[in-house]
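Run: sequence + zinc ion -> complex structure.
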Amino acid sequence: MNLKELYQEIILDHGKNPRNLKKTENFNKDAKGHNPLCGDKVHIFLKLNDNQKVDEVSFEGSGCAISMASASIMTDLIKGKEVNVVKELINDFLEMIKEKNSLKSNNLSEDEKTKLMSLSGVKQYPMRVKCATLSWHTLTSAINNKNEEINIEKFD
Ligand code: ZN
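>> structure
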């Protein structure tokens, strides 16, 4: 299996069977986002503990395979990480998906990097980039306690 096939396999897997697709009990942060261009919707639930670590994270939503896979992979990767590390990861992911083709993060295992890089293929389809970034911008909104729903059209 080449890298492209591996990436497709990961996206298909997470798109069809999204991880953490539920409402977390006792969340203390949440945010909603939508992508009118494609019809994707996501609601992120986050539980940070006293040490500012992600105790629980989950999402509800509906949309295309890319948006579901991205939310699934994201929630999978940030569980158990400190919120500062999560913020770095968000920036790293957004840079990778928009301009670069690599991740700089030292906070990810090779396996985790492969999962994130599986989304890099959307660069060839500019319309789909927002499908992939929706849950990440919504996560930022949840961390920052913003109350308004994210409209991904307003982001670069
Ligand atoms: Zn979409």
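>> summary
The domain at 3-154 is CATH 3.90.1010.10 (Sufe protein. Chain: A). The first helix runs from residue 3 to 16.
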